[in-house]
Amino acid sequence: MKLTLEEVVALTEGELIPTATGASVENLENGITGLGSLDEAGSSDVSFLGNEKYYQDFLQTSAGVVLIPPGLPKTPSNSVLIEVANPSQAFGLMVKYFIKKSHQFKPGIHPGAHVAEDADFDPTQVCIKAGAVIESGASIGNGTEIGAGSVIGEGVQIGEDCTLYANVTIRERCILGNRVMLDSGCVIGSDGYGYELVDGKHEKVDQVGIVLLEDDVEVGANTTVDRARFGKTVIGEGTKVDNLVQIGHNVTIGKHCLVVAQSGIAGSSKVGNYVTFAAQSGCSGHVKICDKVVLTARAVVMKDITEAATYMGMPARPIREEMKKMASLSRLPKLVAEVKELRRRLDEKD
Q1: Does the pLDDT of residue 199 top 90, yes or no?
Q2: What is the pLDDT of residue 99?
């Protein structure tokens, strides 16, 4: 699998930039065959400069081609440079191209799969791999791939062009839109965590709702999304959920949100559109978070947020307010020492 330099320029919608050392396209006569970071890429690889802190790596890179941002000073480089509006995004296009070329969709049902007779799909348009289980009443759209060892429960509905990697579980009656991606080990539709204390014992509250994942949702490895007690737990269109995330029952997450690793969203919370949960952040149950809120790492929302801003700390406060509090706390040891000194002087006077 190779690309010519001209194909890279076209794919990234970039502009070829001459280098100070006159790095030549002849160096790429055998084509571009891979991708890599600035410090690891070789002469037939494409890399990118997406952050100024990697500028020294850029100066020393052996990459055959480097995608650079506009206005970068012309610096010594042995690489062919292509100027693009957003190097990270352009590199992402390259990654998608190589992934698409290296992974060919092959429809069919593996002999080791177990498929209910009344499952609804076109076997010439769907790929079901070894050890997968498709239970009664499930429906699967064209272009969808079910990974090895995955379990699709009774009555589950899966849209078109979805990708489920190995050992995914989708429990009964849950619904996936189109182009949904589920990474290995994630569980969609697990029981919500609900109990009532009856006569000194915790009695389980039945969870009879479902999970709805809208179009273009991605869910990372070993993440769990609980089914609703009744109704739906919903993850909105285009939202991307990282690995090791817990989403509780009856949660509603809006469109195009980002939920990063080890975050937790407790039951019945309502999250708006374009909200970001950074790593290990979360919210308590039954809170509402408005659109375009950003929670920094380990921030915890304990009451409704009604103003779009960046929040930090536990409980989560506007970041400026929280940073002022942290600055004050950092001065506390000095203040304690000063108080002790004042007390010592007063004792001496006595």
Answers
A1: yes
A2: 83
For the record, the structure tokens of 263 come out as 């975050």
Query: With contact defined as beta carbons under 8 Å apart, do 299 and 312 qualify?
Result: yes
What is the mean predicted confidence (pLDDT) over 316-338?
Answer: 88
Q: Out of 103, 114, 249, 256, which one is annotated catalytic?
A: 249
Phi and psi of 202, rounded to 5°? Answer: -85, 110
Give the pLDDT confidence of 233-276 residue by residue, as tens digits: 999 999 999 999 999 999 999 999 999 999 999 999 999 999 99
SS (H, E, C) 262-331: CCEECCCCEECCCCEECCCCEECCCCEECCCCEECCCCEECCCECCCCEEECCCCEEHHHHHHHHHHHHC
Do 192 and 267 form a contact (C-beta atoms < 8 A)?
Answer: yes
Distances (CA, A) of 56 to 40, 51, 63, 197, 271: 13, 11, 14, 61, 41
Going by C-alpha positions, the residue among 266, 254, 263 that lies closest to residue 281 is 263
249 in catalytic set:
yes
Q: Which of 54-58, 185-189, 257-261 has the lowest mean pLDDT?
A: 54-58
Cα dihedral 68→70→73→79 (10° resolution):
20
**Cα 144 from Cα 127, distance rounded (Å):** 6
